[in-house]
Structure formats: structure tokens, C-alpha cells
Specification:
alpha/beta; Rossmann fold; eight-stranded mixed β-sheet; 13 helices
């Protein structure tokens, strides 16, 4: 089972839209796919039209017992399941802080799914925390959306500095440009600058389009309600580039 975290320590960068669309594209390949919504805002859960009735609280979430497995919901799409989030997930980081970090509790939790799924996506909350540290240490691959703006780049560099300090390997962390507006000169300038200085930038970008924002209306992946659109093709390119590295 391959674990892919879609993570950013900055909010509003297109993280959830990426996780939702890539998990859907993964399921189209025939891979048995699970997406775990770890964000208390539960946007992924909303997009998949699921009303969460978790069999366990945030504390039980870490025990990887049958109660958590019973919380998994099927989506409207073949080969794609969802572990939904509720507002109680705001306490996940508190629960992680109570545990010995060397035990890697998230790894134990994810390990319980390895015989059921081929690919597991994590839609992560926007924070640098104990939970985030566990995610960054555990995921096989981490995708980091980066808006080509000064503040977004600054936040990304903070993350890399954090990983270096914590001795977390960045070898399988990949960033890509998100919410790109090619009418803006600053976007062009920063994309060129970042691509020339960083080696882990995927050569594709997700445009800033109202069609992607309409996910909140359709409550579906873009690739499902508009498969031939520019937005859908952008996510397909991103998924293919990630597959090449996997």
C-alpha cells in the first residue's frame, strides 16, 4: 500500500481539491483507494456527500480498532472509500501529544489498512504540529501545493526548515504550483524562480479556475463532473507525474 499525504502548513492553497481529485483518479486505474479526511473542517467528507457518523472519537481514531474500520464509507465511485472527519478531529493533535512520538502512532494506524487498499490518501490539516510531524515521517509521498506568491513560498520554506531540524527526509516530498493565474506577472516570475532553485517541483500546475471552486456546488471531483475540462486535465497531469515517481 502506498500512502500519499496532501499537506501544506498554509491554508487555502487547494490541498483538499487536490486530494479529492487525485484519489478519484487513482480509483479509475482500478486501484483500491482510501482517502482519510484528517481535517476537522471535513471538506473532503463534504465533497463526497458523506454524513459522518464515526464509531469512535479522536482518541479511538488512533487505536486502529474495529470501530474505526466500521466508520469507513463507500463513495459514489467504484474502488474509492472514505474515512470521514468530524469536528472532533480538532483534538487529534492533543491525542498525538499524549503519546510517545518514537512509537509513530500514525504508522500503526495506517498499517491496519495495508491488506485492504492499494493507495491511501491523507487530506491533512494546515498546521505544523505533532500530527503533521507524524504525517511527514510516515507518508511514502507528500504532495505540497504552492501558490506562486511570496507568503506561500515563505511558508513552504518554513516547512523545509522544520523538516531539516527534525531530521525528516524530504526525498519524497514534491511541490507543485496551485491556483495559478497566468495573467499575473508575479505568478510567472515566482514559478520560474522556484523551478530553477528547487529540484522537487513537479512540472505541472493547477490553474485558478471557477470550475474547481464549483466542487462545493457539485460535491464531486472535477474529473467526475467535467472530465474533459482544463482543470480535470491539469489534475490528470499531476497524477501521472506522481505515478512516474511511485
Amino acid at each position: 500500500m502506498k500512502t500519499i499525504a496532501v499537506y501544506s502548513n498554509k491554508g487555502g492553497v487547494g490541498k483538499t481539491a487536490t486530494a479529492v481529485n487525485l484519489s478519484y483518479l487513482s480509483s479509475l486505474t482500478g486501484a483500491k483507494t482510501l482517502i482519510c479526511d484528517l481535517d476537522p473542517q471535513s471538506s473532503t467528507t463534504f465533497y463526497f456527500r458523506v454524513k459522518p457518523k464515526l464509531k469512535s472519537s479522536s482518541k479511538g481514531f488512533l487505536k486502529a480498532g474495529q470501530k474505526v474500520h466500521k466508520s469507513i464509507k463507500g463513495t459514489d465511485y467504484e474502488n474509492l472509500d472514505l474515512l470521514p472527519a468530524t469536528f472532533s478531529h480538532r483534538r487529534l493533535d492533543i491525542e498525538f501529544n499524549r503519546l510517545n512520538p518514537t512509537d509513530n502512532p500514525l504508522a500503526h494506524f495506517l498499517n491496519s489498512f495495508k491488506h485492504e487498499y492499494d493507495v491511501l490518501f491523507l487530506d491533512c490539516p494546515a498546521s505544523i504540529s505533532t500530527l503533521a510531524e507524524n504525517i511527514l515521517r510516515t507518508a511514502d509521498y507528500t504532495l505540497i501545493p504552492l501558490i506562486p506568491t511570496t507568503l506561500s513560498l515563505r511558508t513552504y520554506l518554513q516547512l523545509i526548515k522544520f523538516c531539516t531540524k527534525k531530521q525528516i527526509s524530504c526525498n519524497h516530498m514534491y511541490t507543485f504550483f496551485s491556483m495559478v493565474d497566468r495573467r499575473k506577472k508575479m505568478h510567472h516570475v515566482l514559478m520560474t524562480k522556484v523551478s530553477s532553485k528547487l529540484s522537487n517541483v513537479l512540472k505541472c500546475d493547477i490553474p485558478y479556475l471557477s470550475l474547481i471552486e464549483q466542487m462545493g456546488i457539485y460535491r464531486e471531483p472535477v474529473a467526475a463532473y467535467s472530465p474533459g475540462s482544463v482543470a480535470s486535465k491539469a489534475y490528470q497531469r499531476l497524477w501521472h507525474q506522481l505515478l512516474q515517481r511511485m
